[in-house]
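One example given next:
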Amino acid sequence: MSKLPEEFIRGVESVVGALGIIGDAERMHSYLSDWRNAYRGEAALIVRPASTEEVASMVRLCNQYQVAVVPQGGNTGLCGGSIPDASGTQVVLSLTRMNRICEVDATNETMTVEAGVILQKVQEAAADAGRLFPLSLGAEGSCTIGGNLATNAGGTAVLRYGNMRDLTLGLEVVLPDGQIWNGLRGLRKDNTGYDLKHLFIGSEGTLGVITAAVLKLYPAVRSVTTAWVALPSADAAVQLIGIIRGLCGDRLTGFELMSRQSVEFVLSHVVGCSDPFAESHPWYVLIELSDTQPDAPLNDLLELGIGEALERGLVSNAVVAGSEAQVAALWALREGISEAQNHEGPSLKHDISVPVSCIPAFIQSTDQRLREQFPGVRIVAYGHVGDGNLHYNISKPVGSDDASFKAQQEAIMHVIYDATAGFQGSISAEHGLGQAKRAAARLYKDPLELELMRTIKLTLDPNSLMNPGKVL
């Protein structure tokens, strides 16, 4: 706290009170490092406002004293977007005390929540109202809605419901000068000029602090069927999703692709997971169908689609879950991948997207280049086939030392991102840029796009105090 003027500290105390300030090193620790310990910074103090008005007062105070602000939610990101720099002069603005569900309007199918509400709490509140909030991802028990919005989170149900841009009707945002923009409107049609909420969704706190949102709700799901399918190739997965989509339409809510290496890591490190098949296969998909009708014939549809794929040689084996326990066991194989890979030592994570039709060619060509240039690396490829999003992660060769593997990070990244660009893809599909991909964005984004982004940033945040060093 000594790096900030004493009068600034007194101003913070007058805004949020003693309960809203964390200044001792021990309690600050968890706010200064991401959950993987991949990024670590220092901060002058952690401020935890309890209302939008307190956020606005804090932002105005930081403007007055030219103190940079790092907004933070559940701190579950993968690109270091919510971690301060090493200067020790920035203030982390944690929104976790702002955790109220303000309104559930079942008739309008909307929910208004503060930014610090945990995603799982939103899911539960929707279910209590007989509705569904469909965003679902591995960190849903600890990530916050504000963080989901800041990174435009996707998850496993994007195929049917879209990402956070598609799930949000309105926002409340504290602007960099401390003004409060109240855009909390639960309207599905509002054609009155620029749709300002889309400036802030995905901006990672660089344009303002999202303090509340109006979220879309959907009818509750009353029928679900889940299958685990073994495939000979990634190309077979792309053909299979075409078959299932043609039969099932928007009943298809999940279609998750996993390489054998991904599954092997889970089987080795996640307690309670077992292989559904006696033999191993190169690729797998987890398919989920859902419907609002309680007795929808989902099993029949799924078996029809898998049967057609079997006849065409696209499927090697398949099992349809017969109970909730079996459904959970199959999803555990998918959701355990990220955790399991951490047990194998350092890993290089790449969250990319390419057109769905290009997924097989991307995997084949990129796998080959990496194995030629970096012998022994283990490629952990998995993701959401329906929207072209692959988590294309690299683990070190067995027996190699961590330092030499990390020294190859830049070279490996360029192989993957060059391939992504060659297929007209994106270097960040759902994790954002944060600090991890800021430099790469300068190489792989259109210069005009970057210039337009800088213009918007300069217009809204001329003093560059909102999460500096992130995105741009």
Q: What stands out?
A: The first strand starts at residue 21 and ends at 22. Residues 234-248 form the longest helix (15 residues). The mean pLDDT is 96.
